[in-house]
Every structure is written in C-alpha cells, then in structure tokens.
C-alpha cells in the first residue's frame, strides 16, 4: 500500500471511534478546514481505507416579492377575493396587481370572462405553488413554478459524509505512527542540520506528477515575434497601418490599373465605405491616364476617382509601404510591416482568406536590385532557410520583379511572395527620386513550414492540444 501522509493517518485515527462522520466534526477534531478533510478523505478513499459520500441539498429563499406574497397571498389570490362571484373587468383592471394578477387568474382557470365581466369558477383551494410558498422545501411540486416566477431562489449545498472501511479500521487497530513528518525541507532545516533527524515523507518516483500547462506564446505568435526581431536586428523600423484601406492606396497608388482582375469583387473584400483621395491624387490620375511627366505612357483611358475612394480590407501590406514613402519622401528609409491581409480565397490546406505578410522597403540613393536579393537572402537565412532562389515575377508596381522561393525538405521549392524595385509610375507622382526596393512575403506559409505543419489552417485553429504540446518558439526559445 502507498505510504499514508500524516494527515491521512490522523483522519483515520479520528474517524475510527465514530465509524462515520461529517466534515464539520472531523475538521473540529483535526483542527483543520472542512475542505482539507475532504481532500484527506479522498486520499484515504483512493487507498480503500474510507468511503466518501457526497450529498447535495437544495435550499430555497424567498425573494422580496415572494416574501410579500407569502404574507398577502399571490396576486391572483388577492384579486380573486375582490372579484366576489363576478365583477366587471374594468374593476379588475383598476386593481394595483392587475398586470400580474389577471393573466394568472385566467391561466389558472379561476375566472372566465364573458362580455367584459369576470366570473369566478367556484371554490379554489390553495395550489401547489401557494403551499410551497409558505415554506419552500426540496421536492415540493410547487417549487418549479415559484422559481419561474422569481418568487424564490435556489442554492445548492454539498456535504460529505466519511465512513471508515474494514481495511481502514484494521490499519488503525494495528497502530499508526503519528510522528510529525516533513514533506518539503525548509531552508532553516537545511541550515540547522535538523533535516538529519526529520521524519521525511516517502514519495514514489513511479507516480507521474500532475501535468501543468503554463501560459506561453502561441507557436505562430512566436514565429511572428521572431520575424519582427530579425527585421529590427537588420536595422529596420516598423510601420503600422490600418486594415481598412482605400483602393487608392491598396491599388491605384501602386499603379494597379482600375480594370485589373485582382481588383474585382470576387478577389477583394470591398466595404460599404469610401474615403476621399489624399492631396496629390492628381499625380496618380495623370500617371494612370498618360504617364504624367515620366517616360511612361500610363494605362490610357479615364481614371475614375470614385473607384479609388472605395474602401477594401487590405489585400496586401504594400499600401503601408507607399503611404510611408509618401510621408517620408527622402532617403534613407528602411522599414517593415508585419500584418494581416485579406483575399477572397477558397479555403484549402494552403490557402486562407486571411494571412500574414511581411512587407519591407529600402530607399537609398544607390541601392540596387542586387541589394534587394541580399536582403531577402539574409532574412531567409535568419529564419533558417539557407537555400533561396529567385524566379522572375510580375507586379504592376515593380520592375524588375522577382518571386523568391525557399527549398524545404520533402516539399521542394516553395514560393513565398514577391519583390522588386518600385516603378517610376509609383514613386514619381510623389516626387520620390531615390530607388526603392520592396517586398511582400507570405509569412503564414513560412510559419507553417517552420512549425512543421502541412496545413495552413492549423495556424489559426484553437487546437489546445497542439498549442500545449508545441515547444515554445521565438524569443523564449
Ligand atoms: N504585394 C505583393 C508582393 C510584393 C510586394 C512588394 C513588391 C513586390 C511584390 C503581393 O501581395 O503578392
């Protein structure tokens, strides 16, 4: 048998002469709380030395309204007194309790109403509810109705009765060692050396301890923290911006033509909201219509400010980049944004309608396309992806454009977003002259690979077991 603690032994010794007792009596005998007695009793029960019987009793208390009716009768009873054999409804309606009483008089069938006159239906003996109201006790048939009418409230009380078993009694009869025992050594015991003679409680190395689940960062949150830390260490400052952006910033300022398929309703979440174009919008219009003062010919046709004013859930984080550039205008700029973006995607293991992007821009007098590739490689290396390659890509706002890919064991080359050097059509309307390197990388997909997941949806599911069992990611690693 497992070693008993001193508390269990003392409980058995107190219980043996009584055979059976409530927690109150035992708490008194042991000089402890009833909660502690219940705990010791359950431990004894685990070893078959005691039985614990739990009973719950419900008691009822009258609400102030219930108290009033207990003295004066339920409203329908009080009103019935006034009805006599019959009374005009008008009189009943004038009664102070009419709002509650008339309904119940009819519901209980105590009166019938004919041609504006209420007639009493003979003698009405006290109902179950009226009997229970006098002294509500568990099990009375009228209780449910009184609870429904808020005339009484219920409260549950739990009590434990503890009984010693034959095995428990045999143990007590054989004699139990009740010397004080030490469970945890204190600093004083160690310093004074009294631990040498202490009666140490034995414990079993075979018993698994209770698992605890301390709070920790969500694995995906950990990856995002990591990304942020890497960018800060690379000397970038963080840009922040709204999730709701006007199409002007999400598309037009990025030289995305107004008839571009990505702007369609089925690809983008449009909001029933409009925002006026910012000062300087005419430059963007000119670029779209004929290329403004640049060597570009623009997209041609008419640029419609109403389309640009429509608000969308940002489809990428690039509007934050252009807005930051417009606010800064002069080099040097090294900034990043880490944020959620929204697209009308059908949900499958590698596509979700919302996901995170890592946006970055570098503006300086002499930065080049090669610097861009260097920044991307450096970032991916810091994230633990050493094999990076670049495929030519296309975006309306960059030239040249690339799509970086990283190699993942078992998956091959995985495409992770886009990058390039901002076109003149994007920078010229704002008088920006220095070259701007820009990228927007899918971070959810990267996180999925980093966390060894095969399904993007897992990142956003509240799968408590996965979250609990996953090692801590990021800063705390
Ligand atoms: N915004 C692009 C990525 C990108 C950003 C910046 C420059 C070039 C490409 C996307 O969402 O896919």
TrEMBL record:
GO terms for molecular function: ATP binding; magnesium ion binding; phenylalanine-tRNA ligase activity; tRNA binding. One of its GO terms (biological process) is phenylalanyl-tRNA aminoacylation. Its main location: cytoplasm. It holds the Pfam family tRNA-synt_2d. GO terms for cellular component: cytoplasm. It is found in: Cytoplasm. It comes from the Archaea. InterPro entries: aa-tRNA-synth_II (IPR006195), aa-tRNA-synth_II/BPL/LPL (IPR045864), Phe-tRNA-synth_IIc_asu (IPR004529), Phe_tRNA_ligase_alpha_bac/arc (IPR022917), Phenylalanyl-tRNA_Synthase (IPR002319). Mg(2+) binds at residue 399. Gene3D superfamilies: 1.10.10.2320, 1.10.10.2330, 3.30.1370.240, Bira Bifunctional Protein, Domain 2. Its cofactor is Mg(2+). CDD domains: PheRS_alpha_core (cd00496). Residues 227-471 form the Aminoacyl-transfer RNA synthetases class-II family profile domain. It catalyses: tRNA(Phe) + L-phenylalanine + ATP = L-phenylalanyl-tRNA(Phe) + AMP + diphosphate + H(+). Its EC number is 6.1.1.20. L-phenylalanine binds at residues 318, 357-359, 397, 422. Tetramer of two alpha and two beta subunits. Belongs to the class-II aminoacyl-tRNA synthetase family. Phe-tRNA synthetase alpha subunit type 2 subfamily. This is Phenylalanine--tRNA ligase alpha subunit.
């Amino acid at each position: 048998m497992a070693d008993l603690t001193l508390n269990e032994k003392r409980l058995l010794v107190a219980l043996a002469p009584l055979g059976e007792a409530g927690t109150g009596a035992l708490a008194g005998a042991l000089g402890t709380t009833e909660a502690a007695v219940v705990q010791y009793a359950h431990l004894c029960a685990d070893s078959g030395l005691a039985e614990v019987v739990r009973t719950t009793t419900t008691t009822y208390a009258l609400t102030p309204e219930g108290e009033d009716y207990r003295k004066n009768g339920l409203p329908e009873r009080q009103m019935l007194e006034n009805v006599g054999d019959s009374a005009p409804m008008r009189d009943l309606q004038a009664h102070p309790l009419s709002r509650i009483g008339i309904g119940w008089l009819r519901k209980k069938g105590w009166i019938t109403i004919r041609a504006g006159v209420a007639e009493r239906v003979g003698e009405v003996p006290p109902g179950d509810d009226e009997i229970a109201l006098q002294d509500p006790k568990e099990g009375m048939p009228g209780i449910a109705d009184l609870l429904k009418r808020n005339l009484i409230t219920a409260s549950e009380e739990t009590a434990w009765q503890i009984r010693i078993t034959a095995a428990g009694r045999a143990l007590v009869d054989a004699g139990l060692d009740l010397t004080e025992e030490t469970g945890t050594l204190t600093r004083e015991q160690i310093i004074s050396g009294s631990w040498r003679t202490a009666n140490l409680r034995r414990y079993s190395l075979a018993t698994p301890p209770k698992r605890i689940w301390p709070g920790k960062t969500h694995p995906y949150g950990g990856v995002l923290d990591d990304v942020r830390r890497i960018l800060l260490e690379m000397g970038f400052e963080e840009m922040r911006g709204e999730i709701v952006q006007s199409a002007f910033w999400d598309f037009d300022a990025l030289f995305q033509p107004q008839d571009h398929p990505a702007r369609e309703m089925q690809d983008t979440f449009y909001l029933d909201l409009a925002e006026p174009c910012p000062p300087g919008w005419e430059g963007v219009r000119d670029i779209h219509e004929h290329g403004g003062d640049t060597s570009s010919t623009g997209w041609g046709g008419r640029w419609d400010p109403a389309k640009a004013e429509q608000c969308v859930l940002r489809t990428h984080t690039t509007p934050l980049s252009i807005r930051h550039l417009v606010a800064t205008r002069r080099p040097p700029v090294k900034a990043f944004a880490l944020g959620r973006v929204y697209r009308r995607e059908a949900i499958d293991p590698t596509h979700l309608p919302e996901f995170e992007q890592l946006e970055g821009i570098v503006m300086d007098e002499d930065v080049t396309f090669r610097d861009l590739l260097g920044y991307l490689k450096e970032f991916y290396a810091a994230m633990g992806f050493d094999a990076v390659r670049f495929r030519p890509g296309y975006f309306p706002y960059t030239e040249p454009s690339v799509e970086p890919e990283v190699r993942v064991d078992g998956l091959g080359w995985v495409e992770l977003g886009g990058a390039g050097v901002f076109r003149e059509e994007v920078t010229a309307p704002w008088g920006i002259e220095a070259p701007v390197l820009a990228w927007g990388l899918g971070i959810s997909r990267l996180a999925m690979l980093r966390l060894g997941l095969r399904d993007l949806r897992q990142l956003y599911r509240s799968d408590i077991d996965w979250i609990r069992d996953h090692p801590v990611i990021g800063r705390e690693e």
